[in-house]
Amino acid sequence: MRPGGLCAIAVISGLALSGASANDAKAPLTAKALMKNAEGKDVGRVDLVAVDDGVLLKLALKGLPPGGHAFHVHAVGKCEPPFTSAGGHFNPQNKKHGMMAADGHHAGDMPNLDVPSSGELKIEVVNTAVSLDKGAANSLFKPEGTALVIHAVPDDYKSDPAGNAGARIACGVIE
After folding, report:
1. What pTM does this model have?
2. Domains in the chain, please, with CATH?
3. Would you name the residues annotated as active-site residues?
4. If DSSP codes are grouped into helix, strand and coil, which group holds residue 79?
5. Measured between alpha carbons, how far is 30 from 16 in angstroms, rounded to an integer?
6. What is the rounded CA–CA span in Å between residue 44 and residue 21?
7. Could you write out the DSSP letters of every residue in 11-35?
8. Are the CB atoms for 31 and 140 separated by under 8 Å?
9. Rounded distance, CA 23 to CA 151, Å?
10. Of 48, 87, 160, 174, which residue is the least packed, with the fewest Cβ within 10 Å?
11. What whole-number distance in Å separates Cα of residue 51 and Cα of residue 53?
12. CB count, 10 Å around CB of 5?
């Protein structure tokens, strides 16, 4: 794990995930989140794959407003508009919000997304503070579930508890 469990945006091509090769019997753990906006319209999906450092999130989004948007894991697996049902940020270690927090950040804090004018975005993000292992304290598979949320504006990476990220514009339950 990287110091402080920071997230990193990574373009990964041709790398074996979790050190697995085609000959390994055990496939990496996976999950997905189907993203919807407040009107219930499909705005894409996020595929999650366990990697050695945490979880790789592969985003394929469409129909989002151009510009910067906060992107977080939220603590409840519910996506009822206006998505406040998803609760606060996923924070199993009771840290302060913000990737620049001195004592570490919420496990659900991730880099902002920059959606181009087309409204379509394909990007990969690694979150080193979460796990898909159902037995781990930082597992995204907890009894209440977890969700991915995209906010109206960018996260400022410092304001507690939510980074002044504005309204929740898209949500998907991690399954």
Report:
1. 0.81
2. 30-149 (2.60.40.200)
3. 72, 74, 89, 97, 106, 109, 151, 168
4. coil
5. 14
6. 29
7. ---SPPGGG--TT-SSPPPEEEEEE
8. yes
9. 41
10. 160
11. 6
12. 21
